[in-house]
Amino acid sequence: MRKQKKTNASIYADAVDVLPGGVSRNTIFHKPYPHYVAGAKGCVVTDIDGVERVDFANNMASLIHGHAYPPIVEAVTKQLQIGTAYTLATEIEVRYAQHLTSRAPDFDKIRFVNSGTEAVMSMVKAARAFTGKSKIAKAEGSYNGTYDYVEVSQVSSPDNWGDIDRPNRNPLAYGTPQGVLDDVVVYPFNDIERTLALLDENADDIACVLIDPIPHRVGLFEATDEFVEAIYFWTRKNNALMVFDEVITFRTNYGGAQQNYRVKPDLTALGKMIGGGFPVGAFAGRSDVMSVMDPNENPLRLPHSGTFSANPITMTAGYVAMKDFDEQAVLDLNSMTAKAISQIRDAIRVADVPMSISGSGSMFRLHPRKTKPLSYRKAFQTPQEKTVMTKVLDHLFYKENIIMVNTGTCMFSTAIGQKEVDQLSQGMLNAFKAVGDELNKVYTETHLK
Ligand SMILES: Cc1ncc(COP(=O)(O)O)c(C=O)c1O
Q1: I need a labelling partner for 337 at 20 to 30 A (CA). Which of 43, 80, 267, 289 fits?
Q2: Which one of 3.10.129.10, 3.30.160.70, 2.60.300.12, 3.40.640.10 gives the CATH number of domain 70-324?
Q3: H/E run at residue 243
């Protein structure tokens, strides 16, 4: 009997029997079925049906040099032959820690973990252990991983977000304990007056204020200098820490987005690109705070371990990736991204569609409206806007062979050149023309009522 050829559809038919919804991560879920990879190299991913697409998502911002980057493949192959994880330490974790701590002046010490979620969670626990307080403050709409506390109000919507003076604490997952909600203060990003008022009310209980300096799901625009400084000085006065989630944003400068500010966070969570394509997280910061995990301390305020933390495969891949993402590489990547933004702005003008772009460094996001939104509530998309954005992204995926993040975001890699940027801007122009009437109709109905 002849074996039937595998297709995206046939693999998905098997997947639904064994994986909930047929997927292991909801981000890659796609109707009518997700696409299965046959191989990838540089900025091109080929699916099992043989379609080649240019990748502007890079596994949600984690592949800074694209796929199968030869120096990483070579270094990891060598390490694989001598073991992948031990119950002993490795030198590579020390060398990599030296490299990462040299990139930002406030990174005195660093700990490696296995995901961005774990990095943010461990950072929050370190802040609690250091201050002896339990509450955290986080921005409305911000995605900081899947730790219960930081999930609060991640997807607040007009029917449940409440008064802007006091944004509601909305659970993300059914069954979130009330105690979790009670221990989170939700603040409106970049809104100094309202945020400080909320922090003041909880001053005795707040261990840390968590800031993603360019929060993707809030709208991918930068925290203002004034906002970051206001939080910094509030935390100095109130025995609290200012902690940054730079799991994505560390890519924007050689020393992360924090390089843009005069004041520095006490702790920073890292992830994604620092794993060189392998699962990773890390958190770094002040020596005195990080010492809550020091096994020499008595009492040990934060016992902290992880079976695969600092495994030599991730450390090897990450070290190669980050050493090659040096000051010049960061500048080159940012300027390639700026070119793309400029060409896409031209496409928006030519197609005459209500579309704007936010972003920083090597990442940007499309918004279906004429001017760039500057708050979570302004960036929030109605179901009609989401539907029309999905049409734009589907056009790009199926007709132009372009992969983007499903929020309309691109996260560039160093494998992308002018040819791919031209394909992207031409693809956008075609998509804007194809969906233009609908974009204009939804814009008029939503914003000009
Ligand atoms: C800003 C931010 N923080 C934390 C995380 C969680 O990282 P991970 O998916 O590695 O757990 C993400 C993931 O998308 C993120 O974007």
Answers
A1: 267
A2: 3.40.640.10
A3: strand 241-245
The residue type of 163 is: D
What is the distance in A from the centroid of ligand 1 to the CA of 96? Answer: 21
Asked about 78 being catalytic, the answer comes back as no
Q: Ligand 1 mean position to 144 CA, how many Å?
A: 6
Q: Is 115 in the pocket of ligand 1 (CB under 6 A)?
A: yes
The model scores a pTM over 0.85: yes
Distance CA 219, CA 314 (A): 30
CB of 271 shorter than 6 A to ligand 1: yes
How many whole angstroms from 152 Cα to the centroid of ligand 1? 15
What are the residue ranges spanned by the domains of the chain? 35-64+327-447, 70-324
Ordered mean pLDDT values, 10 residues apiece, the chain (449 residues)? 82 96 92 95 97 98 98 98 98 98 98 98 98 98 98 97 98 98 98 98 98 98 98 98 98 98 98 98 98 98 97 98 98 98 98 98 97 97 96 98 97 98 98 97 89
Assess whether 272 carries a catalytic annotation: yes
Choosing from 125, 138, 264, 272, which is the catalytic residue? 272
> What atom of ligand 1 comes closest to residue 281's alpha carbon?
10
Give the pair of three-digit tokens for residue 246: 């730079």
Active site residue 245: yes
